[in-house]
Amino acid sequence: METERLVLFLPSVDDAHRVTAYRRRTRERSAPWDPQRPDAFFTDAYWRTQLQSNFDDAAAGHAVRFHFAHRRDAEGEIIGHVSLSQIFRGPFLNAYVGYAIDGENAGCGLATESVGGAIAYAFETLGLHRIQANVIPSNSASLRLLERLGFRREGLAKDYLRIHGEWCDHVLTALTSSDWEAQGR
Ligand SMILES: CC(C)(COP(=O)(O)OP(=O)(O)OC[C@H]1O[C@@H](n2cnc3c(N)ncnc32)[C@H](O)[C@@H]1OP(=O)(O)O)[C@@H](O)C(=O)NCCC(=O)NCCS
Fold first, then answer.
1. Mutate which of 134, 142, 148, 153 to test ligand 1's pocket (most atoms within 8 Å of Cβ)?
2. pTM over 0.90
3. What CATH number labels 6-182?
4. What is the pLDDT of residues 124-138, one digit of tens each?
5. From CA 29, how far away is CA 11, in angstroms rounded?
6. pLDDT at residue 184, as a whole number
7. pLDDT in tens, 45-77
8. Which one of 35, 58, 70, 84 has the lowest number of neighbouring Cβ atoms within 10 Å?
C-alpha cells in the first residue's frame, strides 16, 4: 500500500535482515514505551519465524503488521512499523494500533502518515469500525500524533501494561470509522 511518501508492506521471510536492522536501530529509542524485549528479538532468526507468523495472522484476519520504507527507496531501509493487532470482528469490529519510526526519519510527519495509511486500510479494506490506541501519558509525540489523526481520549487506565518491567498507566484513545468519515478522510 502506498501513501504520499511511504510504501507500507508485509515483509516476507526473505526481508528478515531488513526488519532486524530496523529493530536494532530503534532498540534504545523504543525501549521506554515497549514491553521488555529479549535479546533474541533483535536477531534474523527471530524475525524469520515472526514474519512467517505475521503472514499467517494476516491471512487469518487476526492482525496486519505493516513495516514501511520511503517510496523513493522501497527496497531499501525499513524506517518504521505500524500494526493493527487483536482484530475482533462480530459486533466489535475493533483493532489496536501500534507504531514507531526510526530517529533519522522522526519529526517530519511520516509517522502520522503511516498510521493514517493503516487506519484507512482498517476502515476501508478490513471494514473495521473502531481503532484503539493506548499511550503512556508522558509520550507526548505519540499523543500528538493521535490527536492529529482525530483520536478521542476516553480515559486513563491504571497499571494498564507492563512496559520496560513496570506496570504503567495508559491514556486510552479511540477513533471510529464515522469520526474518520466526518473528517472527510
Ligand atoms: C511516537 C512516534 C511514532 C512519533 O513520531 P514523529 O516522527 O514525531 O511523528 P510525526 O512527525 O508524524 O508528528 C507527531 C507530532 O508530535 C509532535 N512531537 C514530536 N515529538 C514531540 C515531543 N517530544 N513532544 C511533543 N510533541 C512532539 C510533532 O511536532 C508532531 O506534531 P505537529 O505536527 O503538531 O508538529 C515516535 O516518537 C516514535 O517512534 N517513538 C518511539 C515509539 C513509540 O513511542 N511508539 C508509540 C507507542 S504508544
1. 142
2. yes
3. 3.40.630.30
4. 999 999 999 999 999
5. 22
6. 82
7. 999 999 999 999 999 999 999 999 999 999 999
8. 35
Residue 45 CA to ligand 1 centre (angstroms): 30
Residue ranges of alpha helices (H) inside 26-139 are 27-30, 44-60, 110-120
8 Å CB contact between 80 and 116: no
Whole-angstrom distance, CA of residue 131 vs CA of residue 127:
11
- Whole-number Å distance between alpha carbons of 56 and 75: 23
Three-state DSSP class for 136? coil
Distance (Å, rounded) from C-alpha 138 to C-alpha 31?
14
Which sequence spans correspond to the domains of the chain?
6-182
